[in-house]
Amino acid sequence: MATETRKIRVGLFVIAAVVIGLGTAIWLGASRYLADEMRCVTYFSESVQGLDPGAPVKYRGVPAGRVDRIGIAPDGDLIEGVMSIDRWFAELILRDPTLRAQLQLSGITGLRYIEIDRHSGDALHEAPKLSFEPEYPLILSTPSQFKAIQDALQDIYNKVMSVDLAGISNDMRATLQGADLLLRDDRVQRVLTNLSDVTDSARRAVANVENMTAGVKLEPVVGDLRRATGEARELLVELRNGETGKQLRGALRDVDDVARTTQSFVLELQVTVDRLSRASENLEQLTDMLRQQPSRLLFSEPPPPRPEPTRGGR
To answer: Bridge-partner residues for 138, per DSSP?
Structure first.
């Protein structure tokens, strides 16, 4: 009797568990189908390893939906991610042109989810170009941070590989060999020896100058220079403001007046000399004329010239 009672209880417990499980599954399925959601799509130009259907979709860290399907885009190149997003979030996301979908890592598990957040600058222009019409409302994407780091490392690698390391190594080897040959040259050794000799000669010359000037006392000379400078300064002050300066300026004015008078006299003398020169020239011309034509002194015109005698005595 006790055994049958125990069997009935176990059977009732199993039936209750099955009923509760079916009810929970029905409730979850109904809540999923009855939820007010909107399907949106985004496209990535990178690997989506770690992103699986059912992964969360977050709007600035707030759960907003889930990933329904992941597949290849119609162009055969991009990765298509279809999302079911709460309608309120979807309408908000589609209205804001600065929002972009981006892959993010979920802790250290390697799983990924889709984060929708605001971006600026170049990130707004890095969405993949579509050559087809999307099936659902489109949410533009931007490369993930891991993709940006990968591209930067690839760019650095390409630049390093483009450097001619072999050529640089050969040039450095040739330069070192040339420097070694130059240092081994006898002429360089002679130059260094001559430079050492010049340095010793300069050192000896400096020592000789120091010995020559060791017994010379410069203080009296400096004192005499100071006194001479002071006397010159006093003389300049005296010439500028003193009686001697006034007398000197008066003498200079007198000399200036004499110079001006002399200059006027010289100018007048020059005019007189010019006049005498012109009178002398006129007198010389008159003398020449009288010598040639004496009758000009008594007559106004010269007499007619005598006829020349004809040939043959006629």
So the answer is: 41
Q: What pLDDT was estimated at residue 83?
A: 94
Instruction: Tell me the C-alpha distance between 52 and 18, whole Å.
Output: 30
CA distance linking residue 72 with residue 246, whole number of Å = 112
pTM exceeding 0.70: no
Burial class (CB in 10 A: 0-12, 13-18, 19+), 94: middle
- Tens of pLDDT, residue by residue over 219-255, are 666 677 677 777 767 766 666 666 766 766 777 777 6
CB 86 within 8 A of CB 37: yes
Contacts (Cβ under 8 Å, ≥6 apart) of 59: 89, 92, 93, 116, 117
Asked if residues 82 and 137 have their Cβ atoms less than 8 Å apart, the reply is no
One-letter amino acid of 273: V
Alpha helices by DSSP H, the chain: 2-34, 87-95, 145-162, 165-184, 186-212, 218-241, 243-292
C-alpha–C-alpha distance, residues 45 and 293, integer Å? 131
User: Distance between CA 96 and CA 116 in Å, rounded?
Assistant: 11
Phi then psi for 69, rounded to 5 degrees?
-150, 145
The string of pLDDT tens digits covering residues 276-314 is 777 767 766 766 776 676 665 555 555 566 666 555 544
CA dist 267 and 280 (Å) reads 20
For 241, other C-beta atoms within 10 Å of its C-beta total 10
How far apart (Å, rounded) are the C-alpha atoms in residues 74 and 77?
8
* Integer angstrom CA distances of residue 220 from 22, 217, 223, 225: 124, 7, 5, 9
Rounded Cα distance, 231 and 227, in Å = 6
